Amino acid sequence: MLPRVTELQFETPADEEEVQEAPQPLVSFLFDFKKGDFVKEDGKLIRITGKEALKQWIEKTIRTERYRYRVYLDDQGNEVEEYGTTIEDLVGTNYPRSFVEAELEREITESLTNHYAINDIRNWRFERDDSTGAMISFEVVTDNEVFEQEVTL
Questions:
Q1: Residue pLDDT, tens place only, 113-139
Q2: In the chain, N or C: fewer CB atoms in 10 Å?
Q3: Under 8 Å between Cβ of 153 and 145
Q4: Which residues contact 51 (CB under 8 A, 6 or more apart)?
Q5: Contact at 8 Å (CB) between 99 and 76?
Q6: Phi, psi angle pair for 65, to nearest 5°
Q7: How far, CA to CA in Å, does 76 sit from each of 15, 24, 25, 61, 67?
Q8: Cα–Cα distance between 85 and 78 in angstroms, integer?
C-alpha cells in the first residue's frame, strides 16, 4: 500500500531567510592589469583560485568605476550596482590629501566588504608618485587569513 501524498510530512524552514546557499568557490582567470589582457599559457587562459582569485577580484573592483559598465549582472540578469568603486573623481584632484585618503578608504572598504569572503580592510597606506600615480596598500581580513594588497591607480 502506498502512502497518501496529502499525509506526508516535510520539514521546511520557517521562512526563506533560513535557507542559505553555500558561497561559490573563488575561481577566475589570471589577468595582467599592466597589459590589459588575460594571461595565456599554450593558448589557454590560466585559471586561478582561492587567495589569488580574491586578490585579482579586489584589484578589478577598485579599478572598475561603479555605474559605468552594464556588463556586471546578477544571477537573474539584473544590474549589480554594488560592483566597483566611485573613486575616479578623487584621483588627481586638488582636494586636501587627508580628505582624498579618507574618501578612498571609505569607498574602497564599502565596495570590498560586499564580498562574502572579506571581513575587514585595515592598515591603509597611501603613496603618490608623479610618474606612476597613486599607490594604495592595505590589509585584507578574511576568515582564514590576513594578507597585504597593493593597487596602483
A1: 989 999 999 999 999 876 667 889 999
A2: N
A3: no
A4: 26, 145, 147
A5: no
A6: -75, 125
A7: 21, 16, 19, 21, 18
A8: 18
- Of 139, 138, 145, 151, residue with least CA distance to 26: 145
pLDDT in tens, 78-93: 666 667 888 888 877 7
Report residue 37 as a C-alpha cell: 589582457
The C-alpha atoms of residue 108 and residue 65 are separated, in whole angstroms, by: 11
Q: How far apart are CA 16 and CA 117, in angstroms?
A: 22
> Amino acid letter at 133?
G
Domain extents in the chain: 24-152
Residue type for 58, please? Answer: I
Phi, psi of 2 (to 5 degrees): -90, 145
- Each as own residue / partner, the long-range contacts of residues 41-50 (CB below 8 Å, 24 or more positions apart, any chain) are 49/25, 50/25, 50/26
Q: Any residues with CB less than 8 A from the CB of 120 and at least 6 apart, and which?
A: 113, 140, 141
